[in-house]
Batch of 2 targets.
Target 1
Amino acid sequence: MYTATRKRIWARNWAAVEDETASPFVRAAMVSDLTNLVTNLGTAGIGYINGDVTLTLARTPEGPDLGLEADSHLDSNGIAIGSATLFDRRGRLGTCLVTAIEQADHSIPVVTPSKVINRIGRGSPDGELPCPSP
């Protein structure tokens, strides 16, 4: 079951290739792939598989921290679409859209449903990163 609460996640210092610094665009593209996670996470886990992700940017990301916050989730007949806002410490910079296929029998379970995922990636500080209003 999908939950209506908004989900937000931070990513810091991701690399597409080990020991190489990813460009701001590559980091944004990698974080956009998490749109399925923030838009389709429910009480039973993530019951959808990404079919397609679209990333649109109004500007280049700045700094090591990128955030993603769910804006919408719609589903019908085993198909879901979700949208999320991509942001950095300066504010909003793009939109991500995911199309997904339901896989309820093979959903990824929620490890700690009482906690909100607040950070991922190498070099993440202890505790939640402060979030600008996206």
Target 2
Amino acid sequence: MDMVEFLDKFGVGNKEDRCEYIGKYFGENNTVYCIMKEHNILNGDIVKSYLRENSIEYTIKNTDTEELKLALKELNTLSIEYYNETLEINADFNEDKQEGKILFTKVF
């Protein structure tokens, strides 16, 4: 049983609440994992890049582009608040490259 299955079984609310909870307490990597698992696109290629001290970008390619687009759209609806900072999420899909980009930026 992984973290997503555990939180499903023992309850943290709906899917959106669960991903926000994971983001707040376990960070960006686990937020991306949660969304990708829920959309069954874990088999895609993922590249993580540190852009600045407070920004991380994920580039995701997957053969199921429609499901990837849904996952990215869902990420844009999340609002993750830390104790004294906010995690801004900007996710979009590049049609030309057939890849998704997720940018996490911590705002102090």
